[in-house]
Design a protein that fits this description.
The protein contains 14 helices and eleven strands. The protein has about 300 residues and is an alpha/beta fold.
Length: about 300
């Protein structure tokens, strides 16, 4: 976590609840006064620490936090979560149990409550659920697998993909249980808008997907020219059907609102626009702005990771 103001009481209570059930390590990159406030309020049962000094040059501070926590973890099964993720006992038990059969586990997040911008972002989740699963703000990993790789690259934008690829590059097995749902608090509207182009930039790590999103605007233009409103209507209906298929998959109707499926056309349009803005940032800036720096790489290609780790 890295906060400019102290965390609210809801987070502190949640952290205390977790600490009564698991070994809880909170890696906190906040400013000194905020850090001290967290240390006082979290209590002695929570292992509260700053990121390790040798990791602070990483562009992506989340990676520094994860590696710091991994170094201190006293158990083989490690659950990594952003500060807006809220596990319950059932989901926590399932994700830990899943590590008996896999080396890295990718559950599925859902937003609750569901303001308009979280509904729009949920459409992204639903579309992703028909093509390999969404990328959540939490992962579970076997500590020994990550330690064997000497960590993962902290100078990329799509840090969760980088972690999973790193584990798989040394022979690890990934599990994506589409019916394992973990609640996530929605971001503020301001934070939501700040993520739009950055999330589109992540697709530089997956060129085929980037090509699909870059084709959205031309496809809309072609549909409008060739079919008029009928063509546009067909695209809108198709996107809603696709999202609804993702919502119904693996019992998703229990946690995802039907409103999210209806938001799919808007999200796909937004992603199509932001994909072109991401390409523009790559060409003009050499990468995507992130916390005052420019991040040039989304993630490392698998073949490069396999080659590097095979020589380690």
């Amino acid at each position: 976590m890295r906060l400019s103001s102290p965390a609210d009481e809801e987070f502190v209570e949640y952290a205390r609840w977790l600490a009564s059930r698991v070994e809880l390590i909170v890696v906190d990159g906040s400013e000194p006064l905020v850090f001290a406030d967290h240390a006082r309020r979290l209590g002695v049962r929570v292992a509260h620490t700053a990121p390790d000094l040798d990791l602070r040059d990483y562009v992506n501070g989340k990676v520094a936090g994860v590696i710091t926590g991994i170094r201190r973890a006293g158990h083989e099964q490690v659950v990594i979560a952003d500060d807006d993720v809220r596990y319950d006992e059932a989901a926590l038990a399932r994700v830990v149990a899943a590590l008996d059969r896999a080396d890295v586990v990718r559950p599925q997040n859902y937003f609750a409550p569901l303001p308009w911008h979280a509904c729009l972002d949920s459409a992204r989740t639903l579309v992703n659920r028909i093509s390999g699963g969404d990328w959540p703000g939490t992962l579970a990993v076997r500590r020994s697998r990550l330690v064997a790789t000497d960590g993962y690259d902290g100078n990329v934008m799509f840090e969760n993909l980088e972690l999973v690829r790193t584990v798989k590059a040394v022979g690890g097995v990934e599990s994506v249980p589409l019916d394992l749902y973990v609640r996530r608090l929605p971001p503020t509207t301001e934070h939501f808008w700040s993520q739009r182009v950055r999330q589109a930039y992540d697709e530089f790590a997956r060129p085929r997907r980037l090509a699909i999103w870059l084709a959205v605007l031309p496809a809309i233009a072609f549909a409008a020219i060739a079919g008029g409103w009928m063509g546009i209507g067909a695209l809108v209906a198709g996107s809603i059907v696709a999202a609804e298929a993702g919502r119904r998959r693996a019992g998703g109707c229990q946690v995802f609102s039907a409103r999210a499926s209806l938001c799919a056309p808007l999200w796909i349009l937004e992603r199509g626009i932001c994909a072109w803005l991401a390409v523009g940032a790559h060409l003009l800036l050499g990468g995507i702005p992130y916390r005052g720096r420019i991040v040039s790489r989304a993630a490392t290609p698998m073949r490069q990771l396999q080659a590097r780790l095979s020589r380690a």
